[in-house]
Description:
The protein is mainly alpha-helical and 602 residues long. The chain is built from 31 helices and 6 strands. The protein has helices at residues 7-22, 26-34, 39-52, 58-70, 74-83, 89-101, 105-114, 124-137, 140-152, 159-171, 175-184, 190-202, 206-219, 226-239, 242-255, 261-273, 277-285, 292-304, 308-320, 327-340, 343-357, 363-375, 379-388, 393-409, 413-425, 430-443, 447-459, 491-507, 524-532, 535-546, 563-575; strands at residues 468-473, 476-481, 553-557, 580-583, 588-592, 595-596. The longest helix is centred in the middle third of the chain and has 17 residues, at 393-409. It is elongated, with a radius of gyration of 31 Å. The protein starts with 6 loop residues before the first helix and ends in a 6-residue tail after the last strand.
Amino acid sequence: MRKPLNQNLISALTASNLSRQNQLSPSHLIQQLRSCKDSDSAKSLHSNGIKSGSLYDTFTTNHLINCYVRLQRIDLASQLFDEMPEPNVVSWTSLMAGYVDTGQPRMALWLFGKMPECSVLPNEFTFATVINACSILAHLRTGKKIHALVELLGFQSNLVVSSSLVDMYGKCNDVDHAQRVFDLMGCRNVVSWTSIIASYAQNAQGDEALQLFREFNRLMLERPNHFMLASVVNACASLGRLVSGKVAHGAVIRGGYDSNAVIASALLDMYAKCGCVEYSDKVFRRIQNPSVIPYTSMIVAAAKYGLGRMSLQLFQEMIDRRIKPNDVTFVGVLHACSHSGLVDEGLQQLESMHEKHGITPTAKHYTCIVDMLGRTGRLNEAYELAKSIQAEANQEALLWGTLLSASRLHGRVDIAVEASRRLIDSNQQVVGAYVTLSNAYALNGEWETAHDLRSEMRRTRVQKEPGCSWVEVKDSSYVFYAGDVSSCARGSEVVTLLRELEGKMKQRGYVGGSRGLVFVDVEEEAKEAIVGLHSERLALGFALVSIPKGVTIRIMKNLRMCRDCHEAFKLISDIVEREFVVRDVNRFHHFKGGSCTCRDFW
């Protein structure tokens, strides 16, 4: 018969077992750090690691740094890093990545600058991290220095580093360098292709972005990822390419990305900018739990179409779903009120920003209010508000440019002169200031003053941006310039058709050239010829002879549509019984049956 164990011996064995459990092995500690979900647990593991002696090992300590970085506790990660006797390249890179992830890219660059002092050489992940920091900051100069170091240390052929460089140059608006790095890459993957496509798309070179996307598909390397497709969709949006946008949408559906929030927002924006707000609404309604971003995009899309009530309904729907609006949302809401003449509603929304939503209005919001008051003829109130607003140079130019347009529209030459003076003195929007003020004088019958301003423009070599419109037929874009019939596609057919339409419009009482852009005091016939050759009319003529009936004609224009062309488009839509959508620099106009969705308010 066995003797019972001594109680003291049992206690000693239990204590020994508990001690062994607390003595975490490095592998066990690493496993627990990888699955750690909160900072309290991480700190507890940190404490146990110190007691067990596991953290005297650099490899294990790096895992703890990574754990803190993953949990966004960069303060604890930095403290641990400082306590390390000999941090290696992984330690340095992990901490840099932590600073980048927590919105402190400058600290990552500062840390990178300290590496040589400790005789630690960067690896490919270090370079990718600091290049990303330069991308976020758009620090081209620093990025070029790091690029030189990449070349010096022989990492130029590394796929991750080269892709990061392409992305960095693109975000720093240096597409030529981005293309150069891309061309020198011996091996490329979907990430590098995405970076170069995004570089062009982000720098207003959408045609090149689409061409690269077609090349990527032709090579059949890999399936495009959602980042690439978002860039392609954005390129289509900036160009107003509906056909290409629909092709990209098809690729999104085939890739299974149509439920992705980023892609959905890009598609929503693309359809809106291509003149298909009903498609935008369909895409928006398919987003299961839309965040503030797609809601804001849809509010702005409706605003651009003059659908102010729809924008306000969307905003209320967003509030009812307890989605917090941001400052951009309110810019969209106020823009909607401005473009639909909803002054009382707009002023109420401005007041609610701080009172209900805790958002302080900025110069952007007040500029919308100035625009709203100006459009409805309340010029004195708009002028007083404009004088009281403190804004940076670019925003101030937008503010006074807005007031200048409104004062010209309502014949307030006194305010137009003051707004123009402020723009010219600040060297902002000088061309627009001269042209709009000249038109204000001309519309007020002050021809001599208007002529003097034009002479001043010629003397100082200030040149007005030429009017330009473009239209998409199948998968090709055709560009038209004001007064340029010689380079106009199917020019003779277009001019013949426009003359026929001009005659039919006059039978309905149309008198061309009475308003809009008047350059000098010209005879009525010559004036009609000038307006008749505005770029949007040439584009419309070409579209009418090129696009079959039943298909909506969509025209993009780089300037504001003049009133004469606006009146002509309304009449022509009724004469030919077709629908036209025009996107000008300010908004959309949908012409149908002799009327426009803007209700002559823009």
